[in-house]
Amino acid sequence: MKSISLDNGRNYLTAAEAVKDDRFNMDALAMLMDDEIRERVHSELAPCADQAFLVRYLELADNDLIIG
C-alpha cells in the first residue's frame, strides 16, 4: 500500500495518520495527485471523508503521495 509524506519524503503516513496531522492540507495533496486517478476516485466516492478518499486514491496510485 502506498503512503503519504507531508514532509518531503522524510516520514510516511497512512491516510488515517495523515488526516490527523497538523500539516494535513487536502487541497495541496489534491494538486499533486494524478488527475485521472483523482477524478476516478471522485466519481466513485464523492461526497466522502478525506480519509476514505485518500485510502482509495492510494489503492489505485502507482506511487506514494509526497508533499513538502
Describe this structure in words.
By secondary structure, the chain is mainly alpha-helical. The protein has one domain. Helices cover 51% and strands 6% of the residues. It contains four helices and two strands; from the N terminus they run βααααβ. Strands 1-2 form a two-stranded parallel sheet. Helix 3 (35-45) packs across helix 4 (50-60).
SSE topology sketch:
Elements: E1 4-5, H1 15-20, H2 26-32, H3 35-45, H4 50-60, E2 65-66
Helix pairs in contact: 3-4
Structure keywords:
68 residues, mainly alpha, two-stranded parallel sheet, 4 helices, globular
Biggest sheet architecture: 2 strands, parallel
Radius of gyration: 11 Å
Outline the low-pLDDT stretches: none
Strand order of the largest sheet: 1-2
Helix count, DSSP H or I runs of 4 or more residues = 4
Secondary-structure element order, N to C: EHHHHE
Q: How many strand units?
A: 2
Terminal CA distance reads: 20 Å
Mean pLDDT over the residues: 95
